[in-house]
């Protein structure tokens, strides 16, 4: 079975074989190849006749083996600027729209990942779900205005903004409501959402930030240092116009950082797309006054520490990690002692330090500032544990719960009856927000309401205020 959507660029034939209509590989911009490689996103070229939209488009260039791509039926190319749309019907209904930005440190990931399949969510909520591909790594985040021009910065954000403009203009052809668009992002996708908000983007009506390390938006100094390192690599110096393999080879030579995570390819404050860091803009700028739902998982960093042996986590190692995060203005021993009050193991303390510094505290600062300016904010913490011992409620575990694709990654959240019930709870709350409702009590500051999602779901007040306060204003470069 097929279905047809008629956009202003041409007609598309989607796949309606599963009861949900899926339009895969829909182009939202011209291919960023050749002379357009280092250029801002350009409008897609119209086509004649009926264009097939039943196969996912190529993913953005990234480090992934050809064998793995072939196993998933995917290809990789710079010509990657496409959308995927799941809709109950390509009719005249005006359904709420959820646009989801994938994570992956802005070097990995794609909108066609099995975890992000929008079929269940679209069917369950009678909503339109959109995912997208955009430029990643060097091709999306190289800060070299003197090399490529002032409008060559933050190309990933420019792609995302262009895609959101396309959705605003065209989603009516897919049964969506262009006046009811929620943008959501997880991990680096959430960082992108915060950057879009800081840049004053008004192409969506509500925003969801899941597990975003918001402190990773970079200064131009940091971005320039990465660019200098890249431009000086043998591959890029040797090639007048390097090919994708040479670009990825140079990208691999950039030290990504571990603790604290540095994110060399995240957005930068370029003065064009972004003028201020999101943590500053939330306090000092007139960001779009839209409702925000935001939060983190309780044990974000455990999945990254899982590769380290237990013997690594000595008293000295944990103290050194705390010192790295705390800098000279905090007593590292006092910081560790504050976490040991809960009788955590050294491994758990080490992970909790980075979870709070990198994810929870900056998210808290961002939403608190937005709430104190009178905007609706709904704060959560996911506590649903992974069935894999030691991971707890780890990074990425929110994805199978939200999309309902528990079978795509059972190690993250489980795939039994209780996990399915948790997924239904998360979906119901998120869908209420997407529909313009208030999913739970608003968060209004330090003592406000936080929804704890887990085996005992419910509201907590003043949640973890003391521990998060440890990291308050630990981002001096941002004001």
From TrEMBL:
Please give one Pfam family short name: COesterase
**Zinc as a keyword?**
no
Q: Gene3D superfamilies annotated for this entry?
A: alpha/beta hydrolase
Gene Ontology molecular function: hydrolase activity
Q: Which UniProt keywords apply?
A: Hydrolase
Family that this chain belongs to: Belongs to the type-B carboxylesterase/lipase family.
Q: Looking at the keywords, is Nuclease present?
A: no
- The catalytic activity of this protein is classed by the Enzyme Commission as 3.1.1.-
The Carboxylesterase type B domain sits at: 3-441
Please give the PANTHER family that the UniProt record associates with this protein: CARBOXYLESTERASE (PTHR11559)
Q: What is this protein called?
A: Carboxylic ester hydrolase
């Amino acid at each position: 079975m097929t279905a047809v959507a008629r956009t202003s660029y041409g007609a598309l034939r989607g796949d309606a074989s599963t009861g949900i209509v899926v339009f895969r590989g829909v182009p939202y911009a011209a291919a960023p190849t050749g002379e357009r490689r280092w250029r801002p996103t350009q409008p897609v070229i119209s086509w004649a006749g009926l264009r097939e939209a039943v196969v996912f488009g190529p993913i953005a260039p990234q480090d992934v083996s050809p064998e793995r791509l072939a196993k998933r039926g995917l290809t990789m190319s710079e010509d990657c600027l496409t959308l995927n749309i799941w809709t109950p019907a390509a009719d005249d209904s005006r359904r709420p729209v959820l646009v989801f930005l994938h994570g992956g440190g802005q070097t990995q990931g794609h909108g066609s990942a099995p975890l992000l399949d929008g079929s269940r969510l679209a069917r369950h909520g009678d909503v339109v779900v959109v995912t997208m591909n955009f430029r990643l790594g060097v091709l999306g985040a190289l800060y070299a205005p003197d090399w490529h021009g002032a409008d060559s910065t933050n190309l990933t954000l420019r792609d995302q903004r262009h895609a959101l403009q396309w959705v605003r203009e065209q989603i009516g052809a897919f049964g969506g409501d262009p006046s009811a668009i929620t943008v959501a992002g997880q991990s680096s996708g959430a960082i992108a959402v915060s950057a879009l908000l800081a840049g004053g983007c008004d192409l969506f009506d509500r925003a969801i930030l899941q597990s975003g390390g918001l402190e990773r938006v970079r200064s131009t100094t940091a971005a320039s240092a990465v660019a200098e390192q890249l431009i000086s690599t043998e591959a890029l110096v040797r090639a007048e116009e390097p090919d994708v393999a040479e670009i990825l080879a140079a990208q691999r030579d950039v030290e990504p950082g571990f603790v604290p995570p540095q994110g060399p390819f995240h957005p930068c404050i370029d003065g064009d797309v972004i003028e201020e860091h999101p943590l500053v803009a939330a306090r000092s700028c007139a960001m779009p006054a839209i409702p925000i739902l935001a939060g983190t998982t309780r044990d974000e960093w455990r999945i990254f520490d899982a590769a380290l042996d237990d013997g690594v986590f000595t008293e000295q190692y944990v103290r050194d990690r705390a010192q790295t995060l705390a800098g000279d203005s905090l007593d590292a021993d006092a910081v560790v002692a504050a976490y040991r009050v809960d009788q955590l193991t050294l491994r758990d303390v080490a992970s909790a330090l980075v979870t709070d510094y990198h994810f929870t505290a900056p998210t808290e600062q961002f939403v608190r500032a937005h709430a104190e300016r009178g905007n609706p904010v709904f704060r959560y913490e996911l506590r649903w544990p992974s069935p894999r011992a030691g991971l707890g409620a780890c990074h990425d575990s929110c994805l199978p719960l939200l999309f309902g694709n528990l079978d795509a990654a059972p190690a993250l959240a489980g795939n039994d009856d209780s996990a399915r019930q948790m997924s239904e709870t998360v979906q119901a709350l998120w869908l209420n927000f997407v529909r313009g409702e208030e999913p739970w009590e608003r968060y209004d500051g330090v003592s406000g309401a936080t929804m704890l999602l887990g085996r005992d779901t419910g509201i907590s007040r003043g949640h973890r205020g003391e521990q998060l306060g440890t990291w308050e204003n630990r981002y001096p470069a941002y004001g």
